């Protein structure tokens, strides 16, 4: 699997990513030190495949969301 490059140098300090108050800025790792699933989040084809596969939670979540929207649309229609 080919990983994407972050464009950040290894051991570089990333600024403005404060997730803890009064904590130092996080330090970027080398691209190969990050887990494989993280790179899958950036791959649009893999994310689309999750939504189209009935074995995944995202498929059912999308189907439920569309069913709720359709029901709301029909209930708001004036007869």
Automatic annotation (TrEMBL):
Recorded family membership: Belongs to the mitochondrion-specific ribosomal protein mL54 family.
Compartment(s) where it occurs, according to its Swiss-Prot or TrEMBL record: Mitochondrion
Gene Ontology CC entries for this record: mitochondrial large ribosomal subunit
GO MF, one annotated term: structural constituent of ribosome
Keyword Ribosomal protein tagged: yes
Organism listed in the record: Jimgerdemannia flammicorona
Pfam family, one: Ribosomal_L37
Protein name as it appears in the record: Large ribosomal subunit protein mL54
Location, primary (coarse class): mitochondrion
InterPro entries reported in the protein's UniProt record: Ribosomal_mL54
Keyword annotations of the record: Mitochondrion, Ribonucleoprotein, Ribosomal protein, Transit peptide
Domain of life from the UniProt record: Eukaryota
